[in-house]
Amino acid sequence: MIRVGQGVDVHPFKEGRPLVLGGVTIPHDRGLDGHSDADAVIHALCDALLGTLALGDIGHHFPPSDPRYKGKDSRFFLREVAGLLRSRGYSPHQVDITILAERPRISPHIPAMTAELAACLGIAGGDVSIKATTTERMGFTGREEGIAVWAVATVGKMASP
Q1: Sequence-distant (≥ 6) Cβ neighbours of residue 79 within 8 angstroms
Q2: Domains of the chain with bracketed CATH
Q3: Is 13 annotated as a binding residue?
């Protein structure tokens, strides 16, 4: 049985923070604002994966009000979500992610992000699709106020031992 979920995450830029997307630190003059490392790619992906089994969202499992998650590397959340799926008999199959950002240029960092996400999920790099686009200077991403990410994930029932 294959199940599908989607996730969306948006974070504003903030001075004095590193920009982390897909588990990779990207050189930029600002990072994203958030309780953890504000990795919008991983947050959207976690929501997509959780959605496959109707398990709520990342904020439900890792509330921003909990001090344990302040500044946390979001790869921790992704590994935990993958473990939660596996504990329920499902494993990630394929993910498809679209990043909306006017700047910085994302495409040079896609191979590193792909490798990070595949490693966290325990899937092949060929099963991780990451694309980036601008909004042609329209809206908050076009004004370079933040970044938005859309993610879709499929999971499948694991074979019984």
Answers
A1: 120
A2: 2-157 (3.30.1330.50)
A3: no
